[in-house]
Each structure stands twice: as structure tokens, then as C-alpha cells.
Write a structure and sequence with these properties.
6-stranded mixed sheet, 8-stranded mixed beta barrel
């Protein structure tokens, strides 16, 4: 049976997210998402489902990503959608309940310029894992063209519970490299979603800000999709957490240029722990539109 559904397409730094306004059972999420992601005119990388706003508590909106993972870009996009629905003009704040996160997120918005800033949930765990046994294509900064088995070595793993990110530096962002890492991580940890943030080997400093270009690649298990994303909010947060911890106590500012946009992040590190992390940037929203799917 065909059904017309209402959607909004959000563009947070190129990480195109399709928001479904109609209500669906969770069991239907993958089927709906696959159809929407197959619509080339939408250009979607991920799908989120808007739910009824909770009748109690301070949340002013609720949404779930298709794989029930956490998504920073999805969260800040949803905050802007709700701010516009609530009639907020200019600067304000919206409290949202999102999948893969145990706390209510505060999204700071400026609806005049479609700008959003969110205090992200702190990682559940930041650790190291040894990937030196994996066969990985040549490191980008390697002078000798060899297939490197030790290019990865001990790398940072940042776990948010709903998604696990690995921070890889100086390695080519290829499908082959991602699949090798993905197979290892899924076999060992089996997270609901995982990402690899392929970062430049060296960061550049602009004043008191560190600039680190990266290419995010994300896999969501329930939908069995892998995307070389335009940008990734939770991946940006993971990088800021890992790099901030390396730099020690203080407030560390980062700019992460990504294939389709830029996300800024500020990491507050205290006592060798992540105290809080923010990400911010513009989000473009389409008008509400209707598309037809099979249900």
C-alpha cells in the first residue's frame, strides 16, 4: 500500500538528515528509511523519526534516529526544527529528548541565521585499542609506499553508548580501510552504530584554535548502511574529546573541516576528564514536503 508522508530535510554541514513527521512503529523504521535514502532527489545520508512530545518532564520534543543511535547533527537539526515550530524568533533554547542519549539535550538556536549550538553528552568511555594487526592501505604521510600493518597501532576509541567512534590519523579514508576496521570492531564490540573519523596526521593552529580536517564514515547496524558522510556531529565530539584529553586540562577550541561543511567544537577538560563539550554551526532546513512510500 502506498502512503504519502510528511518530511523535512535538514542540512547540518552537509550531513543530510531526513526527518519523518508521520508516526511509525520502530519495526518499520528500516523499511521507511531505505526508501527515503534511495530517493536521489533528497540526497539523504540518514533518517530520523519525530515522535510525540513527552507530556511530562522538560523535553520540548522527541526524536529517534532510524537505528536508535545517537547523532549530534540530527539532534541540533531537530532542535532548530522544534524552535521554528514553537515560534522562537532569533536566539533561544530548546530541550530535546533524542535516541542513544540518556540526558535531555539543550539546543541553543538563532532562528534568524539558522545557527545551533549544543552541549553534547560526555562519552561513556574514552580508551585505546590496538589495531596494528589489521592490513591497512598506505598512510597518507608515509614516504615509502608499503602496505602498513603497524600504521594504526594504538588508536582512540570514544564510546557514547549509542555509537562508538574510532579516531584514525594519517590513514587514507578508503572503503577498504573502513571495512577492515568495521569488521574488527563489530566482531569485538558489536555496537549499534560505529564511525571512523579519518583525520589528518597533523593539526594546524589558527590563534588559539586547532584546525583538523577529517572525513567521517559511519555504519548503522540495524539499517546495514555505510556512509562517507558530509559531516558528523558525534564524530566531531569524539575527536574533540580524544584530542582535548591529550592536550591536558583547559578549554580547547577546534575547527573540523569536513567534506561538505565545517563544525566547530569546544572541549572543557578538568582533572584529566571530559567536563563538557559543545559543537556548533549552521543548519539549513527545507520546507515541509510530501513524498510517497510503500508501507
Amino acid at each position: 500500500m502506498k502512503k504519502k508522508i510528511k518530511i523535512i530535510v535538514a542540512d547540518p554541514a552537509g550531513n543530510i538528515t531526513i526527518f519523518v513527521k508521520d508516526r511509525f512503529e520502530r519495526s518499520m523504521y528500516p523499511g521507511v528509511a531505505r526508501q527515503l535514502l534511495a530517493m536521489e532527489s533528497l540526497g539523504g545520508e540518514q533518517v530520523a523519526f519525530m515522535l510525540d512530545t513527552p507530556s511530562c518532564g522538560r523535553a520540548q520534543g522527541k526524536m529517534e534516529m532510524c537505528g536508535l543511535e545517537f547523532c549530534g547533527n540530527g539532534s541540533r537539526s531537530f532542535g532548530l526544527i522544534r524552535a521554528k515550530e514553537m515560534g522562537i524568533e532569533g536566539k533561544g533554547s530548546v530541550f530535546v529528548d533524542v535516541s542513544g542519549c540518556d540526558e535531555i539535550l539543550t539546543i541553543e538556536v538563532d532562528t534568524n541565521i539558522n545557527y545551533t549550538k549544543v552541549k553534547m553528552p560526555n562519552p561513556v568511555k574514552v580508551s585505546k585499542i590496538d589495531l596494528s594487526s589489521l592490513a591497512i592501505d598506505d598512510a597518507k604521510n608515509s614516504d615509502d609506499a608499503k602496505n602498513s600493518y603497524d600504521a594504526l597501532g594504538s588508536i582512540d576509541v570514544v564510546d557514547f553508548g549509542g555509537i562508538m567512534h574510532l579516531i584514525i590519523r594519517g590513514i587514507e579514508a578508503t572503503e577498504k580501510n573502513f571495512e577492515a576496521i568495521k569488521d574488527f570492531i563489530m566482531a569485538k564490540f558489536n555496537p549499534p552504530a560505529m564511525g571512523v573519523m579519518f583525520c589528518d596526521g597533523e593539526m594546524k593552529r589558527e590563534g588559539d584554535t586547532l584546525v583538523c580536517p577529517m572525513i567521517p564514515v559511519v555504519y548503522v547496524k540495524d539499517v546495514d548502511t555505510t556512509y562517507f558522510e558530509g559531516s558528523c556531529g558525534s564524530g566531531t565530539t569524539a575527536c574533540a574529546a580524544a584530542m582535548g584529553l591529550e592536550m591536558g586540562d583547559g578549554i580547547h577550541h577546534f575547527i573540523f573541516p569536513q567534506p561538505a561543511g565545517v563544525i566547530e567544537s569546544t572541549a572543557h577538560i578538568s582533572g584529566g576528564m571530559v567536563e563538557k563539550i559543545f559543537i556548533e554551526g549552521k543548519v539549513e532546513l527545507s520546507p515541509e514536503m510530501e513524498v510517497e512510500i510503500e508501507v
